[in-house]
Design a protein that fits this description.
alpha+beta; 18% strand; seven-stranded mixed beta sheet; 607 residues; five-stranded mixed beta sheet
């Protein structure tokens, strides 16, 4: 504590970010502060601490800080550092289920409504999210049937009139492609559809009832049934309205619950005065019932392209809400009001969220424990069982895939604390030799990986443990590269699939773990993921090569158009099964080339 005490005495009173390190120099926590001196000293001298905070403080061997010009700059820096280092004691939100939205781009001459799960700053309008039992596809069908807005995203040529498709004949579209509706009349229908999505349901309901009755009178019973089904969906949407809510309320309501070890956050989504549903999060983390932790949650949850509400409501005062509000305005271009509510309808919403948070806490604890058994706890146990030098926080697994030495590829998958880190996955083309040689392929891949450790440590940081998919031979081959590069501080093992044997460098006999052992299950997950990633890449290369050979010598069909075909139809079999009309939907493929592709595939006996 001597070194820490000296550092604590000299902390500045400026705003900034502090970074806590364990005995091995690993970053275990990143925090921001309006006053670094007051905030950091609290960890060591404040007598009231939760169990998780006490556990973190016991692991702190050192810390450093970065002074920032303002609290908002500290927020931004903290956010970037947490994304980069993923410290174990911070609130780390995994990619939660993303809910769908409806998007309409009014810059298009005849706009269409599309389903999307990503919000972008592209000038389009977004409606949603759709959750809580309301199907986005049902809503889209209501729009298409009530307002006959075109359901396709086909590029329209105002100078070229085409024959209307089936959607026109079943009264789901006014066929702007055939010039059967003016741009002004069409836009009026789009505006009415947007009014419906904004909460005005009366006109839509009236329109659907009229269309249902007309269809029944005309003995179009199948169409009348569709209208009736959509009226039932509309009724479900209307039930989401909370009568006492102002229809212009757009808010996320946040509440927390904690048992001192585990914490949950419940987030209810209200748009246009309608309760759309909610999300629940569970953490093995310091209690989230204080304003600091809630502030951290808010920063983690709302990404740059998120659906940012007008209000964030909580029964607990969120720390640094002024800085958070400025941060959202600067990064998302939107002003957000943070409300700590004590009464009224918003307080009722906060109470509802709190009930959900406590309910989720009851069911989430067992899931968290099981997840920890399969990840962090398994990492700790693996270090002891295999007598590793390092705690295997960052594990990398390598696999090779080829058929008779053709299209040889290697894969590298990365797990952090027992969970996949998809952004860090890498692929390798094996280039230095011909034919099939698993040992040499592993050596080439490892040599390139270790070189990147020196030349690009940001993208290729040092792993704690490297796992080779293979046996003693593959392990020995990779060990040669380790020796040539002078690497001695990375643990190295191999996992042979046949009997799930774990080969170590300093043991002649493999280690065999029980089939139900969580350590073995974790290693199997990593190995299987490396195998899947390698196989996927190999199939992609094989498909591209097959595509090139089949489609060679078609006039005007170069690399760019071949790539566009592959992106559209995924692989050669998809192109083979495509019709001439479907081929023409690919950018750059006209009628002549579509016909040439069909003729070539037919000539090769593939169609």
């Amino acid at each position: 504590m001597g070194v820490l005490e000296d550092k604590l005495k000299h902390l500045p009173e400026n705003p900034g970010v502090y970074v806590m390190l364990d005995g091995e120099g690993q970053i275990i926590y990143v925090g921001k502060a309006k006053n670094l001196k007051n905030r950091v000293r609290q960890y060591f001298f404040n007598s009231v601490k939760t169990e998780k905070v006490m556990a973190m403080v016991k692991n702190i061997a050192d810390f450093y800080y970065i002074i920032a010009p303002s609290e908002i700059d500290a927020l931004s820096l903290e956010n970037n550092l947490i994304k980069k280092h993923k410290p174990r004691y911070n609130i780390l939100l995994k990619d939660d289920k993303t809910y769908p939205y409806l998007k309409v781009d009014l810059k298009e001459p005849f706009p269409t409504f599309k389903i999307t799960r990503k919000i972008k700053k592209d000038g389009a309008k977004y409606f949603g999210p759709f959750m809580g039992g309301v199907s986005v596809r049902d809503v889209l069908q209501i729009i298409n049937l009530a307002y006959q807005v075109r359901p396709c995203d086909k590029k329209l040529n105002p100078h070229k009139c085409v024959k209307p498709c089936l959607n026109y004949h079943i009264k789901k579209c006014f066929a702007p492609c055939a010039n059967l509706i003016s741009a002004e009349d069409y836009l009026e229908r789009v505006n009415k559809a947007m009014d419906f999505l904004s909460g005005e349901t009366l006109e839509t309901e009236k329109l659907l009832k009229e269309k249902m009755q007309d269809s029944a009178l005309n003995e179009e019973f199948e169409l009348a049934l569709k209208y009736r089904e959509n009226l039932a969906s509309l009724e479900k949407i209307k039930l989401k309205r909370i009568t006492a809510l102002n229809k212009f309320i757009n808010a996320d309501v946040i509440a927390t619950a904690s048992n001192g070890i585990y914490s949950t956050v419940s987030l209810l989504v209200v748009r246009n005065g309608r309760m759309l549903g909610g999300k629940n999060f569970a953490f093995e983390s310091a209690t989230l019932t204080d304003g600091d932790a809630l502030s951290e949650f808010v920063l983690r949850y709302y990404k740059q392209d998120s659906d940012i509400p007008d209000e964030i409501i909580s029964a607990v005062e969120i720390t640094s809400f002024d800085a958070l509000s400025d941060y959202f305005k600067q990064n998302n271009g939107k002003k957000v009001n943070f409300l700590c509510v004590k009464q009224g309808i918003r307080k009722q919403l906060a109470d509802m969220a709190e009930v959900n948070a406590h309910e989720h806490l009851e069911t989430a604890v067992d899931k968290i424990k099981h997840k920890n058994d399969m990840t962090v706890t398994a990492c700790k146990a693996l270090k002891d069982k295999l007598l590793l030098n390092n705690y295997p926080k960052r594990m990398e697994c390598y696999d090779i895939s080829n058929i008779s030495g053709v299209d040889k590829v290697g894969s590298m998958v990365v797990f952090i604390d027992g969970q996949p880190e998809f952004d860090s996955y890498r692929r390798f083309k094996i280039k230095t030799f011909e034919g099939a040689d698993d040992f040499r392929a592993h050596q080439e891949m490892m040599e390139r990986r270790l070189e990147r450790l020196l030349t690009d440590p940001e993208k290729f940081p040092k792993p704690d443990l490297i796992i080779i998919d293979g046996g003693k031979g593959q392990l020995s081959a990779v060990k040669e590269i380790f020796d040539n590069k002078g690497v001695c501080d990375i643990d190295l093992i191999a996992l042979a699939e046949k009997n799930e044997e774990i080969y170590l460098l300093d043991k002649k006999e493999p280690v065999i773990l029980e089939k139900r052992d969580y350590c073995l299950k974790m290693l199997q997950r990593i190995r299987d993921e490396a195998h899947r990633f390698a196989i996927t890449y190999h199939r992609t290369l094989r498909g591209k090569r097959a595509l090139s050979s089949v489609l060679d010598h078609i006039k005007g069909l170069g690399k760019i158009k071949k790539r566009a075909l592959l992106e559209k139809f995924k692989d050669l079999s998809g192109i083979i099964s495509a019709t001439e009309e479907q081929l023409k939907t690919v950018d750059g493929i006209g009628e002549v080339q579509a016909k040439a592709i069909i003729d070539k595939l037919t000539k090769e006996g593939l169609k």
